[in-house]
């Protein structure tokens, strides 16, 4: 139960951040369906096959941008933990040794 008295039921497992893809739907395309401030959350399996698509609608454009920013920040942070960026080795290219 939430602080304000709301009750929520969890129907499915959460989407892992390393298998989540966000797609912004621009107003031109979403208005044709009667939806505004819409974006997609796509759940992929480990083979990058789509196993779920969720259409989310925000109450306003600033709220939509905030949601997208926070979700993308979480996804990027998690991916950097799984596969940290490699440090640059300076400005010079590193050649593999032919003596190995």
From TrEMBL:
Tree of life domain: Eukaryota
Q: Which InterPro entries does UniProt cross-reference here?
A: PH-like_dom_sf, PH_domain, PKHG5/7
Instruction: Identify the residues that the record assigns to the PH domain, covering every copy.
Output: 1-76
Q: Which PROSITE patterns match?
A: PH_DOMAIN
Biological processes per GO annotation:
Rho protein signal transduction
What is the protein name given in its UniProt record?
Answer: PH domain-containing protein
Give the lineage: Eukaryota, Metazoa, Chordata, Craniata, Vertebrata
């Amino acid at each position: 139960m939430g602080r304000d008295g709301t009750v929520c039921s969890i129907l499915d497992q959460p989407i892992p951040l390393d298998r989540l893809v966000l797609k912004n739907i621009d107003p031109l395309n979403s208005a044709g369906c009667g939806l505004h401030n819409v974006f997609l959350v796509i759940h992929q399996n480990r083979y990058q096959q789509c196993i779920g698509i969720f259409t989310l609608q925000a109450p306003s454009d600033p709220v939509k941008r905030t949601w997208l920013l926070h979700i993308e920040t979480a996804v990027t942070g998690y991916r950097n933990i799984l596969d940290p960026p490699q440090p640059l080795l300076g400005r010079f290219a590193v050649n593999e040794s032919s003596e190995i």
